[in-house]
Specification:
Helix content: 40-55%
Number of domains: 2
Oligomer: single chain
Largest sheet: 4 strands, antiparallel
Radius of gyration: 21 Å
Strand content: 5-15%
Structural class: alpha+beta
Shape: elongated
Number of strands: 6
Distance between the termini: 39 Å
């Protein structure tokens, strides 16, 4: 099943949308695409060797992209250059592959017929971002990081607003964590639960609780989803501290 592109957000308060998050759950969608292409190639006549070879090359390239480039994008935003997109349009994971292999050929063309040649695509922490406007690569990278940081803050506010905890408990747990530490922990844990990899309902958790003498340094704080955090409770698990910086 293909995920619907997320709604766009403006990060520079201008009339023009500078950064758009055009897809999420990139790795899962890429694996789904590989399965689709593998099924698609089996339906082709055996004598259609050119198309079969073309699809198999695409599958091989996408597997390599998942194995090498995608893990790197968990650490920092990765720029997807125009040549890569032209040669391998399936990296966009667009709706084209739901219409069969022929639809894949239209993804790159259709995208550029709708947008200016100043558009750029970046992959970061399992999401694909598009930047509209004329910016240097360094500026584009900063815009993506700024977008992700704003999104993180937004969901922190929403989580606090709709949390079932008492306001005093929330204040005790969260206000003492500095913004610098939050950013460090978020990037270190790659915006996902340090235990199960979930990217939803994330919370900053003290490995050693503050009530038991734990500090508010990045070394003592990790990202956990609500389920893992509730399962842990108030236990101290010293093994989690090993290797933290």
């Amino acid at each position: 099943m293909i995920a619907r592109p997320l709604l766009t957000h403006d990060i520079d308060h201008g009339a023009q949308m500078t950064v758009k998050k055009i897809s999420a759950n990139y790795q899962a969608r890429a694996r789904d695409m590989i399965k689709f292409l593998e099924s698609d190639v089996k339906l082709l006549p055996i004598d259609n060797t050119a198309k079969i070879e073309h699809i198999n090359m695409g599958i091989k390239w996408l597997r390599g992209f998942l194995a090498q480039t995608v893990p790197e994008s968990n650490e920092e935003p990765i720029y997807l250059d125009g040549e890569t997109l032209k040669m391998h349009p399936w990296v966009l994971l667009g709706d084209g592959y739901s219409r069969g292999w022929e639809g894949m050929d239209d993804i790159f063309t259709n995208r550029h017929s709708r947008n200016s040649n100043s558009d750029a695509l970046w992959l970061y922490q399992d999401s694909l971002y598009e930047i509209v406007g004329f910016y240097s690569l360094d500026e584009q990278k900063l815009l993506v990081l700024e977008y992700v940081d704003r999104e993180r803050k937004k969901f922190e506010r929403l989580q606090k607003k709709f949390s079932d905890k008492d306001s005093d408990d929330i204040k005790y747990e969260r206000t003492r964590i500095s913004e610098e530490v939050r950013i460090t922990v978020w990037r270190r844990d790659q915006g996902k639960c340090a235990r199960c990899g979930n990217r939803e309902n994330l919370e900053y958790d003290h490995i050693v609780p503050v009530s038991k003498g734990g500090s508010n340094t990045a070394r003592n704080i990790e990202l956990l989803c609500q389920n893992c955090n509730r399962a842990k409770g108030n236990r101290i698990e010293y093994v989690r501290i090993a290797g933290r910086s």
